[in-house]
Records
---
Amino acid sequence: MKYPYGISDFQDINTNGYFYCDRTDKILLIEQAKSQLFIRPRRFGKSLVLSMLENYYDVAKKNEFDKIFGNLAIGKNPTEFRNSYFILKWDFSCIDPSGTADNIKQSLFDHINACIENFYSFYNYKGYDLPKIKINYKNALYSIKSMLSAVQKTPYPVYLLIDEYDSFANTVMMGVQSKESRYNAIVHDEGPLRTLFKMIKSSTSSSMFDRVL
């Protein structure tokens, strides 16, 4: 029996003979709320849950559904929303927490912009013909709005998955060289992280992001 230690790619685990304790029946419960914050200890499997949802909801993986989920509970009784979303995924562990607050803000914007560029190229490659998305490398919030405007011209809503959402903020707060003023500049008042999540909340309320986890 192969154990998937350190592997958080759901498709890799379930199609390459790794042990997997089937929890896909919980997808139905997750669907009951459009926006959720899922908090568990480190190494608890949060990233694997996000990968499971990414594979389940991604419209570009519709033809692979039976291969990925056919032997699992949700594969035998899928919900109506399977393979019906564009997936936008952010991994905040990729953001550089060093430097000044402005440096960290730019690293945050760089990551989001890179994810949006990948989103655009991936779905166009898959044949979904998205309208052009304008990227502002100094202001990722503009890029997000441009992406959402493009997506609204298609039949598919966006499911936003955020992994390690507090990773770089915790690193800034707990690092040996961390300064409280720098942490406050990032997560309090009108800092970039707070402003970003306010925008996500607003976009969810207006149905631009259909679901967020």
---
Amino acid sequence: MIMVKPAMPYLDVIAAARDRFDLPLAAYQVSGEYAMIEAAARNNWIDRDRVMMESLVSIRRAGASIILTYFAKDAAKLLA
């Protein structure tokens, strides 16, 4: 497995790793990325669920087959 950390600033690295390696590719959405979204949502600057899902979708679209995130339970509830 290859892991890219942090995920959001390195979407290009995730895409390049996906093109180069035929291994499971994990991306770790670090606590700072989580905290940024949570803080903006608390200030009513963003729609938390929409931005959370968009961040996860962007990581997936970049090529990650595994996403480690503090949003795991909340995302799973929205996907159910």
---
Amino acid sequence: MPNTDPNITAQIETFTRQIVATVEAAVTQRIQAALAGALGVPQKRGPGRPPKQAAAPVAPAAARKKQLCPVPGCNNPAAPIFGMVCKDHKNVAKSKIKKYREERREGKVTRPTAAQPAKARKVKKVTPKVARARKLQGQYLGALKSLQGADRAKVKQIAAEKGVAEAVKLAQSLKK
């Protein structure tokens, strides 16, 4: 190298050493990670997002076994949206479903028999009196929510003494 500045030569040599050291460190780290992965040793986490790992092979949909509804006598597939029971039995109590699963696990129920119709929950009709009481209670709670301190205590006292209807009237007058 004719006529080269010694400072430039020194800087180039320093830079070359730094690159060689960086490449060697990266290669060493990759070899260690590959050996740790092959031996099953968990990899030490560093800062940042971990690299994606190869996903485990998923069995084809046809090879997977469908989960059936746990209700005895039901051959329908279970649906995750109904808590792993079929749509016909989505209203069956969870305690009963749990009992059916335990019986199936213990082997008491071997094979489902003829399909049984689902028992629908009975919806109790609300009498007009109960509906009015619920509406009044909702108004009372809503009125109480908007009050604070002494006003709130006063409304609660009136509700205990004279009834909820009077307390709602008082709360509405205090709110204005």
